[in-house]
Amino acid sequence: MMMMSVSASSLQSQLNLMKTQTNETNFQKAQQTKGKTAMGKDSFMQLMLAQLANQNPLEPVDSTQQLAQQAQFTQVEELQKLNTALTKNSQASDAALYSGKKIEYTDSNGQKKAGLVDSISFGANSIGLNVNGNVVTPSQITKLYANSGQTVTQ
């Protein structure tokens, strides 16, 4: 029987790589599902138009109900705008947290690396931290060094 020796650091790096890949996969699946299940302004408008088209001409919809539905439509639209603005604000806050700080991260090959975050790039749904010419996502970070030399482990 042949015995294999595996170091704890090798297992830890493989585990971190698997966690990163799982997080990215789950995020992508959630984004795909979100569009299919969320009722947006288009769906709401289609429902309202279908209701108007199929109403009984002898008993039309009350004008107060119609105004209430239009107000709901406006609320849905404004809430979507607010959600977009909050998401962008959250990304900017995350960027401020990492900007100019030293981090340790696990790259896509499972290697541990460290460096200073010299710039931040913003994507549609995430941020990219530029470290020594590499783009790192927040999910890849294993350590964040505070300015005083203290370490914050995620």
Short description:
With 154 residues, the protein is an alpha+beta fold.
Strand content: 15-25%
* Residue windows where pLDDT falls under 50 for at least 5 positions: none
Question: What class would the helix/strand composition place it in?
Answer: alpha+beta
- Could you say what the CATH architecture of the domain at 66-154 is? Roll
Order of helical and strand elements: HHHEEEEEE
Level-1 CATH class name of the domain at 66-154: Mainly Beta
Strand order of the largest sheet: 4-3-2-1-5-6
Instruction: Count up the helices.
Output: 3
CATH-defined fold name of the domain at 66-154: SH3 type barrels
| Shape field | elongated
How big is the Rg?
24 Å
The largest sheet, given as strand count, sense and whether it forms a barrel, is:
6 strands, antiparallel
Question: What's the mean pLDDT score?
Answer: 75
Per DSSP E runs of 2 or more residues, the count of β-strands stands at 6
Distance between the termini: 39 Å
Helix percent reads: 40-55%
Could you characterize what this model shows?
The chain is α+β, with helices and mostly antiparallel strands. The protein has a domain at 66-154: SH3 type barrels, CATH 2.30.30. The chain contains three helices and six strands; from the N terminus they run H-H-H-E-E-E-E-E-E. It has a six-stranded antiparallel β-sheet. Strand 1 and strand 2 (112-122) form a beta hairpin. Helix 2 packs antiparallel against helix 3 (63-98). The longest helix is centred in the middle third of the chain and has 36 residues, at 63-98. The chain is elongated. The protein starts with 7 loop residues before the first helix and ends with a strand.
